[in-house]
Structure formats: C-alpha cells, structure tokens
C-alpha cells in the first residue's frame, strides 16, 4: 500500500538522463517543465508534437522517432511514461523497476515512484506542487493562487531619505495606475553614503556610495526596481543592472536658499555647498564668499542653515520642489550662470538585465532620456563621474539638442565652458563631441 502523500525533493538533474516514452501533449508539457533544469532528455515516440520537434531542432533534446524498445531505458535515471497504450505503459513500468530507474506512468498513479510536480519558478525560488494524485482541479486552482502571490508584487528599492522616498513614490503612483493588478511595495535602506556624514563625498568614494546597497537588493531579488536621482548614479552601471527608464525632468537648476527669515545673503558666513562643481561656478558670482561643506540629506542641511551655521545654501531646485519646499528658494541660477550636474532633476529607474519592464513604457520620458544620454556621455568621456567638477545640461530646442558643458582640468586647475548643438537622433555623439572640444580648448 502506497503512502497517500509523497515527499517533495529538490534534485540536481542537470547531468541526469531522463527518457520520455511518448510524444503527445502530456510528454510535451513534462519536457517543457524539465528543460529549464537542464537534464539530458531523450524522447522516444513514432510521432511527436510540433513543439517537441522544434526543441529537437534547437538541439535541446534528442528524439528517437520510432516505437519504444527496452534498450531505450537501460541507462535512464528517470523514465516518464506517457503513451496512450495502457498495456505498453505497464510493460515499460516493469522494465524500469527492474533497472532501478525512477519511474512515473502518467496514466496510472499506482505505477509511480514519484509524482511529477507542477513547477512555479521565481528565481531563486522553486515551488513544486502536487495534489497527491487526486484533486487535479484543486491543484490547478492552488497553483494559480500561488503564482498570483509569487508574481504579485513589484518591489521598489529606495534610500531612506525623505526625498528618495518621495521620488520612489512618484514611480509607485505610476505603477499603481499602470499595473492595477499588482501590489506595489517599497523597500527602503540606508546606503553607505547616508551613513558617512562627517566627510565630503569626494573623499569617501563618490557617487557609488549611494547605490551599492540598492544594487545588492536588486541582485538578491529583494527588489525589482531601484529609483535613483540620476545625478547620484555612477557613469558606468553594472551590465546586469541596466537603467531601464529615465523620467521626465523636474527643474534642473541650482538654487540659493537663505536661512528662515533672511532676505539677503550674509557673506560674513560661509555658503553651505559641498559640490566642487557648484563652488567653481559660484566663486565667479560671489568672489568674496567662503564655501563650506555641508553633508546630510536636504532636510538635515536646511536645519543646519536655519540654525545659523551658514549664510545660505546651494541646492537643486528639483529636490526642494519634490519636498514641497519651493517657497524656500530665494534665487534660481540659470543654466548659463551655474551649469547643473549631469542628470540633475531626472530620475533613473534601474532594473535587472533580461527582465520585462515594458510596464515602464509610459513612465519613460523622451526628452528626459535624450538629455540624460547626452549629459552622461559628456561626463563619461571626461571621466568625471566621481568627484571632479564637471557639469552638463542639455535641452531640446526644435529638432536639435543644445548642450552646455563645463570641463575642469585636474592638472592645471583651469576650466573651460562651451556649448554645442547636435541631432536628436544621437545624443551621445553630441556629448562626446563637446567633451573633445573642451579638452582641445583647455590644452590649446
Ligand atoms: N546629492 C544629493 C541630491 N541628489 C539629487 C538631489 C536633488 C534632485 C535631483 O537633482 O534630481 C540632491 C539634492 C541637492 O543636490 O540639492
């Protein structure tokens, strides 16, 4: 008497020989379930389905297009019997038992060493489901329910700061509308860049510090997408974690914020600003000013400002607007006064290579994408991804891109600024062309 429930076992079948007798619908389904686990499959059947033939053409399995012979299973580790001849099935079962192979006869639950499970995969998880040979309808229903749970959520990884969360919520709001059948979740985490607050970023390793932990969550499949301020992203992103969408751009300008209640910039106190890019450009505007580094997230910096440590603070308009703090802005610096950081105001959505992110199609913004590619190509060419004070700002004007860039030459401490126009079709070529031109000018 057989036990009424079978034990689930997760077995490495990658080098095992599995012989399938029969080439119909059941055989096909089982072969397709097994193939992703990379066994050696041999199908024996005078006639097989088109799908099996296709798999044979792709060299994913071997087919013997003929009747079964007992030699076929002599070196089989597992035998799956699925012909529509019950007597033949029973005969194959007896031989397989004698040979000591694992055997399953699809049409006869009594003649099975194991049940063939329904398989649900969500890497790295493998879920096998089995109705103990009884309730097929119930098993199919349960399988659907499990699949819905497994594929039900889209999880967004984000830094913990208020601004990062607001930015992630912008994507979540979109996803809730675009994919109403899915549950949209947020996974927040502290990054190394958030933990180290006593040194300027340039000294502790630059932009990568804000993305490492988020990358790890994506790789480990604890999240499905990461939302970043594009300007905080390194120029080279790992191949397995590509940027899958650029958002519509928020105001790209840098701005001045004064302490609560003040209406002029008090230059007897330092201007709070950690970015070499901003300092380099603002020195021209405020030759008598002192600049002092200020770290921490936007709200922390504003607190320091209001506590009287600084005469003013330079921040990105985009962050303040998203935080609902537009009213704190005292002055906007136009891009021809202070060239913004590459990507400033644009959100980058990062995903895992090989996954289907077609649901981001309407989040992705054409102008944002063109500007992002152009500005980042400029900075990448100048190798200024980490800490050197490069700046780039691209806008679409008619059927052209207008790019403004700043190149800083480490060796001489000199910088050059220039502009160039290029085709909408090829934003990266324009970025590289302006970078080359500015290098030539710096050298000539
Ligand atoms: N380095 C921090 C950071 N990263 C992105 C933004 C603002 C939002 C954006 O540029 O998209 C800010 C704050 C700031 O520079 O004031």
Automatic annotation (TrEMBL):
<dbReference type="GO" id="GO:0043115">
    <property type="term" value="F:precorrin-2 dehydrogenase activity"/>
</dbReference>
<comment type="similarity">
    <text>Belongs to the HMBS family.</text>
</comment>
<dbReference type="GO" id="GO:0004418">
    <property type="term" value="F:hydroxymethylbilane synthase activity"/>
</dbReference>
<dbReference type="Pfam" id="PF13241">
    <property type="entry name" value="NAD_binding_7"/>
</dbReference>
<dbReference type="InterPro" id="IPR022418">
    <property type="entry name" value="Porphobilinogen_deaminase_C"/>
</dbReference>
<dbReference type="Pfam" id="PF01379">
    <property type="entry name" value="Porphobil_deam"/>
</dbReference>
<dbReference type="Pfam" id="PF03900">
    <property type="entry name" value="Porphobil_deamC"/>
</dbReference>
<keyword id="KW-0560">Oxidoreductase</keyword>
<dbReference type="InterPro" id="IPR022419">
    <property type="entry name" value="Porphobilin_deaminase_cofac_BS"/>
</dbReference>
<keyword id="KW-0627">Porphyrin biosynthesis</keyword>
<feature type="modified residue" description="S-(dipyrrolylmethanemethyl)cysteine">
    <location>
        <position position="386"/>
    </location>
</feature>
<feature type="domain" description="Porphobilinogen deaminase C-terminal">
    <location>
        <begin position="370"/>
        <end position="439"/>
    </location>
</feature>
<comment type="function">
    <text>Tetrapolymerization of the monopyrrole PBG into the hydroxymethylbilane pre-uroporphyrinogen in several discrete steps.</text>
</comment>
<dbReference type="GO" id="GO:0019354">
    <property type="term" value="P:siroheme biosynthetic process"/>
</dbReference>
<comment type="pathway">
    <text>Porphyrin-containing compound metabolism; siroheme biosynthesis; sirohydrochlorin from precorrin-2: step 1/1.</text>
</comment>
<feature type="domain" description="Porphobilinogen deaminase N-terminal">
    <location>
        <begin position="154"/>
        <end position="355"/>
    </location>
</feature>
<keyword id="KW-0520">NAD</keyword>
<dbReference type="GO" id="GO:0005737">
    <property type="term" value="C:cytoplasm"/>
</dbReference>
<dbReference type="InterPro" id="IPR022417">
    <property type="entry name" value="Porphobilin_deaminase_N"/>
</dbReference>
<dbReference type="InterPro" id="IPR036291">
    <property type="entry name" value="NAD(P)-bd_dom_sf"/>
</dbReference>
<dbReference type="InterPro" id="IPR006367">
    <property type="entry name" value="Sirohaem_synthase_N"/>
</dbReference>
<protein>
    <recommendedName>
        <fullName>Porphobilinogen deaminase</fullName>
        <ecNumber>2.5.1.61</ecNumber>
    </recommendedName>
</protein>
<dbReference type="InterPro" id="IPR000860">
    <property type="entry name" value="HemC"/>
</dbReference>
<comment type="pathway">
    <text>Porphyrin-containing compound metabolism; protoporphyrin-IX biosynthesis; coproporphyrinogen-III from 5-aminolevulinate: step 2/4.</text>
</comment>
<keyword id="KW-0808">Transferase</keyword>
<dbReference type="InterPro" id="IPR036803">
    <property type="entry name" value="Porphobilinogen_deaminase_C_sf"/>
</dbReference>
<comment type="subunit">
    <text>Monomer.</text>
</comment>
<dbReference type="GO" id="GO:0006782">
    <property type="term" value="P:protoporphyrinogen IX biosynthetic process"/>
</dbReference>
